[in-house]
Amino acid sequence: MTSTHRLEELRADARYQLERRDLYRAKMFGPRATSPERLRELERAYEQVAERLRAAEAKVATPEAAEHHRDIP
């Protein structure tokens, strides 16, 4: 899998997890029963995918930065 494709997948997954968390958080203001544990699960899922995305972006950025510095005398 190409790094660009993988980054796009991670970005989409992070966006999805963030939206799920935000929707559940909004639901907590309504009349239906909600659970603080469920909100924590959703927050944890978002944090995990966001961390994977940051790591993947850093991994992709590092070779480019190293390549750029190699060209500078």
Task: Spell out the blueprint of helices and strands.
Elements: H1 3-27, H2 36-71
Helix pairs in contact: 1-2
How does this model look, in words?
The chain has two helices and no strands. It has helices at 3-27, 36-71. The chain is elongated. The two termini are 34 Å apart. The relative contact order is 0.15. The model has no long low-confidence stretch (mean pLDDT 88).
Structural class: mainly alpha
Shape: elongated
Assign a percent range to the helix content.
over 70%
Give a count of the beta strands, DSSP E runs of length 2 or more: 0
Helix count, per DSSP? 2
Percentage of residues in DSSP E strands: under 5%
Can you describe this structure in just a few lines?
The protein is built from two helices and no strands. The protein has 73 residues and is mainly alpha-helical.
